[in-house]
Structures are given as structure tokens and as C-alpha cells.
Amino acid sequence: MRLMPFVLAAALLPAAAAAQCGGGFQNFVKLMKEEAVQAGYDNATVNAFFAATSQDPRVLKADRGQGVFQKPFIDFSRRLISQERLRRGLQMSQKHDATFQRIENTYGIDRGVLLAFWAFETDYGGYQGDFNTRDALVTLAHDCRRPELFRPQVFSALELFKQGNFDPERTTGAWAGEIGMVQMLPGDILRHGVDADGDGKVSLKTSAPDALMSGARMLSHLGWQPGQPWLQEVTIPADLDLSMSGTAKKKSVAQWRKLGVAAREGNLADPSLRASLLLPQGHKGPAFLAYPNFGVYFEWNQSFTYVLTAAYFANRLQGAEVYEAGKPDSGLNDAQMKQLQKKLQARGHNVGDIDGILGARTRVAVQKEQVRLGLPADAWPTPALLKKL
């Protein structure tokens, strides 16, 4: 389910000049092979790895078809979180209790965090993807949309092959090159793979202990703070200045408390922690405080909706109540969102691609225009905003 990949760890970068993206695919493969040899790999290894490499049009189609991220948080989270997924998550927590205890003791990461990723990425290992990993990575490295993200991963896969931990003809995974139960890229496996079950191999496709410990080690490397929260549902006062909300705006928990923000369950976290107020569907919908660990989620996936849903599901797996959905104002459909992005762009805002997705830059632009127009500045675009623009 990791549909917006991000290179989580520095991969092995060859010393030779990079093969340019685009052009004839087989010529691109030829240049990649030459680059690998210049980087020190022997001809036999390189030829064996790249033998029968082919472009996979399904990968390109998947890369351009990420419409699921156009869904608002409430719809998206209800789609991904079911009673069955929750039940199985609790079952897996018991089944692999020893591994989760080891993770908590070693890295200080609560089990709900790993269980949520495991659920969303592969449905607890049930479906890990059927794309040939080598072909997927080379296809995306050749494509000029984001070659800088995928090209290093080709060489990481080559290194795994050299070490005997990758079969270029048989290793399969997600369309974006992630492998195993928690979907890790080859560069991540090289740096963070853990042989947790002690069989002498790092087997992220078949060993739950290996996959979970490797994922935990990666999160720790990315900056996860042991024993700290990541997300908490809150209530906000009616007179709160909504322009203070957003992932880029932070205040101490003590400051949020003074402003009238309160925990929906229990108490707010350590008063000295800094947190952002998130209103994924505006001030009439759910509200959350996002703590420093929440930022680590964006190193796993860059979609705000996915990240928020994964963080919330981690809470649910640890006993939190279902969030209060409220009654958010109507949002925009795909055509309206693209129209909004064009209007924002015309007013000098950097919203990135006109893709119909309410991403971070679009949210920032929306909030600025809401302030300018005297609307509730909660970064939630509505038909009323579109009309005023």
C-alpha cells in the first residue's frame, strides 16, 4: 500500500557518471551495466543481475494512478481500517509478542506503530506484491519522472544480489520496488535488515520477526524518539485561531493547553513537547495533535492522508477510541480540486503538480487564501473558497 515511495536510506552510489533517464530502454540498461562495472562489480555478477531485464508498463501505470490519495481522511481511514484488520492486528500482537517486546526494549517503539504499517503495507504479510523487483526499479530509474529516487535502489538490489540475498528473476514485491512484509526498499534492507530469528538470513518476505525488527531499526535510524507519543485526538475551542494549525506550525503542549486544546481521552502529553494541530477536514472534523515522532512517518510515506491514517490506526491498535468525525464542510471533487490548484498557482502559490490531491503545499496555499479572504483558516478547501477565488 506504500504508493508514494521515498528513499529512506542512502543507497550505494557508483562512482561513475549516472546513466541518463529516458531514451531507448535497452540502451539505458547497457549504460547501467557499464556503470556497475566501473563501480567495481565484476562482469559476471552484472550480467547475471541484468539478464532479461525488461520494462514493465504496469509499473508506470501504477505510478501514475494513485487516485486513492484524493480521498479525504475520513473516507480514506474508514476504507483502510476495518474491524477485521483491527482484530487481526490484536491477534498478531499476541502471536509475535516476544518480537514486539524485543522491539520495545531495543528501540522504544510501541507495537501499534509496526502493526499498523504491517497491516497497510501487506495486510499482515498476506499480499506482498507480484511485480518483479529488479524490473520495477529499472523501469522507474529509466522513467524521467523521479529517476533520482529509484536509480540508487537498482544498485542496492545489485549489492543484495552480490551478497546472495536477492534473486533478480524471482524476487517480487510492490510496484515501486519495496520488498517484504513491511515493504522496504533494497537500500533500506542493506542498512537496516535484521536477522531476528537467528537463521543466518534477513528474510523480510517469509520471517515476521526479521521484517518487524528491520522496520523498527529503520524507524529508529530515522529519528523515532523512544517512549514518546506520535498522535493524539483532541478537541478545540470554537474561538481558536485556526491559522495556527498545520504540520509546519508548532507550539509546546503547554501553549496548546492554554489556548483551550484538550485531549479527547486522558491527558495531553508532556507539556514541554512541541506539537502541531492537524485538522485534516477542517475545523468541523476530527482534530489531532501531532508530536515529534509523527514527523518520522513522512520518511516512510509522503502522503499526509496515509501518514495520518497509519498513525491513528497505531493508536486504535493500542486501545484508543474511534475518532469523533464531526460534520465537516463538503470538500471538492477531482475536477474542482484541480481547478482550485490552477487558481492558487495563478495567484503565485507553489502547489506542485496539478493532480487533484490535497498535498502539503496545496494546504499551505489554501490556508493563506483563507486568511486573505476572511474565511476559517483551517486549510480545508471548500466550494465556498473555490467560488471566492
UniProtKB/TrEMBL annotation:
The Peptidoglycan binding-like domain, residue ranges: 334-389
Keyword presence, Signal: yes
Signal peptide: 1-19
Keyword Oxidoreductase (UniProt): no
Record key words, sorted: Signal
Transglycosylase SLT domain segment(s): 25-314
Ranges that cross the membrane: none
Any Pfam family: SLT_2
Protein name: Lytic murein transglycosylase
